[in-house]
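Pair request: fold both.
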Amino acid sequence: MFIREQNFSGRDAESAFLWGARQTGKSTLLRMMFPGVLYFDLLLSDVFNRFLSNPALLRETVEADNSSSPVIIDEIQRIPSLLNEVQWLIVNRNRQFILSGSSPRKIVRSGGNLLGGRALRYELYPLIYREIPDFDLLRALNNGLLPRMYLSDKPARLLSAYIGSYLRDEIMAEARIRNISSFSRFLEAAAFSNGEIVNYSNIATDCGVSSPTIKEYFQILEDTMTGRFLPSYQKKPKRRVIVAPKFWFFDIGIANYLLRRGKITAGSEAFGKAFEHFIYHELYSHSHYSGINYPLSFWRTSSQTEVDFILGDNEVAVEVKATEQANEKHLKGLKSFASEYNTKRLILVSNDNLPRKTGNISILPWRVFLEKLWVGEIIK
């Protein structure tokens, strides 16, 4: 059992949406947090068909329930018309709803009702370090952090099924993509852009479609919460900086499978890339779960000097190196950034055994860094 960090903090008696990609654990979390309440799972065909043909049945069922407990609707995006009934019950009966789904995209595209600010928004991501007892870094970097994949001894088949049934089939259907072969090629090309600066023209050439089409495909991945952009840090630069964003898939295992990385071993190039992805995932999750919602960005100059992650408005600069012994050459980007910006903290996250400090740069083993991050010692 994983104890999730997402606990709907600040919700009180408010209704809420819980969004997250498939298999992140939304249903498990809701059943654990809200036992014994009215719970409608729209993945069940009988429940789906009943409400699809007559959305008013939801109102009648909730009206007959005399409790004051929240009402849960799982996979709400499957029947957007139910949201009109939900809004009526919130406004006229003061009922509280928790509505989960894999993406609001279908609701928005259908002109559906997102409750006009009457529901708070929360998100659930793949597992993080502190949610996993006896965390195994190599397992995480190989399997990814979707709960089912992380626990599996043979994740390749599960990842293949996930990519085939969800990333390709379901997302293409939801987004109404007609050119199936080009989108399949795009997913593989996007994987090669994972953690890299996006070049729309090159990807368009590889996929045989236009740059605007590639931008639309990336937007679909963002809308369905299966990928996201990391913008470049551009505040008052003294030297020319790269302005194009980087792209990250939402889960390490998905990127691994699309890249055909095979088994990742410590010290390999693939280990270094997956390790950076892991730290990015922790930072992004912390920004949202903590409620701080600090922006994340990266910094790279035209001469290729780079810092992997800038937290907030240059409050903290974080460089990630998978090495077991960080040295002077690994500090170059942090020192360059510090020469241009008044940064509160400079941190190198590595595989070192013990914390060290060189000048104003802290070298932290990844476990130490994450412990400090999640207790609020890195950024507040």
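--- second member of the pair ---
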Amino acid sequence: MKKKVYTALGLMSGTSMDGVDASVIESDGKSEYSTILDRYFEYNGDIYKNLITLRNKIFSPEDLKKYSTDLSSVEKEITLFHANIVNLIFEELKIEIDFVGFHGQTIFHDSSKKVSIQLGDGKLLSQLIKKKVIYNFRQNDLKNGGQGAPLTPIFHNLMVNKINKKYKIGFPISVLNIGGISNITKTVNKEDIKEESIYAYDIGPGNCLIDEWIRKKSNKKYDENGLIAKSGTTNNLILNQALENFNIDTYVKSLDIKDFDISFVKGLSLEDGASTLTNYSAILISQGIEYTKEVNSSEKVKWLICGGGRKNKYLIECIKDNGINSKNISLELIDNYGINGDFVESQAFGYLAIRSYLKLPISYPQTTGCKKPSTGGVIVENF
């Protein structure tokens, strides 16, 4: 019997808050997927400014209530923006889309309080685009004792198996995603996951501290290729003190960008602060990778890097300089294997939308800490 294949549009806006990644995929929701389209749509200046301003006001669940009017206003702005880009994609492709996986924009995430808020009105989006929309992906995991993140590991596993089938690179293979926060996935040589056999966790900051520093000290949004950091000098005294103050004994907590701050470099120049923060982030990423090696074995592991941080050449250099590029660990960009590393998460949310529709798990005890494999995503048809 032929497997049923669905077409889904995944929409993802990350912690940089600069725009939306959109991907159309075909998948059975299990062991197969193919990519039809990847597009990036930059937020206009007002949305970007409103999001950054709002995020800088919200540090607790109480703040969510305090700024509820502002949240509603920005949520509507974001939803209308998503509707416009979805309709542009529909017009371009002229194929039938079964579902839209709408992640929304994370504005507050605190796993210890079991709160994760993504701005985005799924009902309004469904009404505007005349399609089934699947959103609110994290809430069911939180209800089942999980931390609401990371949700992409099950897709990482499928993606890695697809790469291995084509390029025969051999397991073990792990994925390092460097977004605002860095997280890792240890994959298994199996495409259709039925057991809790993959595991994943957040390991520290990715781009978030560097981006925040660059925004604060210049008129740029990020450090392109790490050139600003590379031109500076790392303050090792400040760096070592900051590393001593940040301690992860076990990697069990889902992290948010607000778990970190840039105050420890406030007296430095633009370049020196960027250099110090880049090395700080790189060392924490390296420690996370080393922890994985200890957990598993001394086997040679290939690490495939995705996420916006992979484009920061100086950050990648710093990770390798911390002893990671050893004979037992090989770091490579996922782009070397035919996958565009900018769109892994948007493709993932298309895949997670299909799995949610099929009531299949999207999170597992060893990925989010949930008590049992949990499906997720609210399905709405409002037209």
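Observation on the second member. The CA atoms of residues 9 and 165 lie 25 Å apart.
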